Amino acid sequence: MEERLHLDPQKINRGREAARKIAEGVDQFIAPLTTVAVERTVARLFGIDGIDDEYVPLPNRVVDHLLEKGGLGRGVAPWLIQAMMHEEQDAQTIAERVAQGELDLTKVPTRSDEEISRFGKQIADQQLDRIAQNRKKRDEYLATLGEGKKPYLYVIVATGDIYEDAVQARSAARQGADIIAVIRSTGQSLIDYVPYGATREGFGGTYATQENFRIMRQALDEVGEEEGRYIRLCNYCSGLCMPEIAVMGALERLDVMLNDALYGILFRDINMQRTLIDQAFSRMINSYAGIIINTGEDNYLTTADAVEAAHTVLASQFINEQIALLSGLPEEQMGLGHAFEMSPELEDGFLLELAQAQMARQIFPDAPLKYMPPTKHMTGNIFKGHIQDTLFNLISVMTGQGIQLLGMMTEAMHTPHIHDRQLAIENAQYVFNNARNLGQEIQFRPGGKIEKRAQEVLDEAVQLLEDVQETGFFEAIHRGTFADVKRALDGGKGLVGVIRKSVDYYNPMEQELRKRLQLPSREEVSHGYRSY
Questions:
Q1: Residue 102: is its pLDDT beyond 70?
Q2: Contact residues for 114 (Cβ-Cβ < 8 A; gap 6+)
Q3: What EC number(s) does its UniProt record assign (predicted)?
Q4: Is the per-residue pLDDT at 148 higher than 70?
Q5: What is the CA radius of gyration of the chain?
Q6: Of residues 288, 370, 389, 420, which has the active-site annotation?
């Protein structure tokens, strides 16, 4: 499989090296910065949860309090630790008192750095050990129940009501689904807080809350035991609350998270500084929790042409890979995204799609690639749409994709009904079963259309990455290099939540994660990659 398209390994290495340098530049840029979302995540890991009388989440109350007092540059952890030690109360009680206006964290007597560090490490160890236990529980399920064959059959539920989602998820699992993704309510990525509790209303999806995660995890565990295979749960930790949702997923044993370094910048106009800081911490959490991330390169082809912009997908995959590695995320947890989006009217479009999928498989051999179905060219003709999905399924099994988000014949018409999902699963099962080993039985003609197409896309991607390395990553985004979307360094939503760290900044959660993931400290990153 590795050499079937005769791709030049030196060009692949050039692309990866350029992406590595781009990623290191990004990592150095964000090293002296934090965000309100990162600090709220730390607060949640200290045990703070719930809402106040005005339905504002308590992590927001604590972080906003410190932001108003000018103390957030130090991080939320030192202030919480000092208050917990002085008041002899847990973090939840401290947060409730802050929300009620009874306690000013910046006026609590200070403690020495040694005392703060010792206390912070204890809290971090307790919570990270809890996440490690969840990972162990998943491994036990996989060892005893097993799982479906790859490509995993990935389907969505999106009713807005978490209890109805659970009913539909059980149904999908019984029909053969391996991954259930709960689509988030429209616009949640743009709200700078995480809703609380079980929710029964949502437009276009269901709110991502920790209680909703718990409810769905329980439902899938129950049906998984009935079916005799582990069912994975997916949600979204993109948007303005990326690291918060990542840690909620880690605490409730989610298995897959949408977690892209560029998606929020390009498609939700979230400030690029904010996104890049938040994704780094969220990916450390996902890495440690054993959660597979999905990236969003497939979305590029909804705004740009699949033929002309194919190389931008590959370039972004290289960048996402290298940025993820800097957060300790192994290749086995990188569901790098791409999509079946060639126009059905294009002659030999199937060959071009096959070239793209096989190329990605060879360049990222250890990644469980996430392959997205045709959406851009679905017309409402359900019979034609079902055929498009069949061709999509055939390429997936031929090229050994890892995660197959199943296409629905009613795509772009309405949220799928249960029977739409069942037909999609039956389609994929039929194709996968009948063509399971087709990829091992065929060869691509040397110098043929498929091989030439893959080589051309690789050439263009390498050139693009080297150009981005030369001009700068932020400038490349500003110019609209990816998805034909232009964004500015100081534009977009959430910039006000980016905070420069003070000299005494302390984040025990990141510090301990870095140790456990065997990553360099933030101080080492700030001084440049040559120092280690």
A1: yes
A2: none
A3: 5.4.3.3
A4: yes
A5: 23
A6: 370
User: Is 298 one of the annotated active-site residues of the chain?
Assistant: yes
Place of tokens 């045990």: 47
Contacts for 463 with CB less than 8 Å, ≥ 6 apart: none
pLDDT at 1 (0 to 100)? 45
Kindly name the residue from 230, 236, 263, 371 that is annotated as catalytic.
Answer: 263
Token reading at 178: 């391996």
370 catalytic? Reply is yes
Q: Which of 49, 165, 278, 298 is catalytic?
A: 298
In order of their start, the domains of the chain are 46-124 (no CATH), 146-453 (3.20.20.440)
CB 279 within 8 A of CB 236: no
Q: Cα dist. 63→55, 71, 93, 509 in Å?
A: 15, 9, 15, 16
Q: In this structure, which long-range contacts are made by residues 384-390, counting pairs with CB atoms below 8 Å and at least 24 apart in sequence?
A: 384/344, 385/409, 385/410, 385/411, 386/423, 386/427, 388/340, 388/344, 389/424, 389/427, 390/427, 390/431
pLDDT of residue 4: 85
pLDDT at position 305 over 60 = yes
- List Cβ neighbours of 88 (8 Å cut-off, separation of 6 or more): none
Question: Average of pLDDT values for 389-407?
Answer: 97
DSSP 149: P
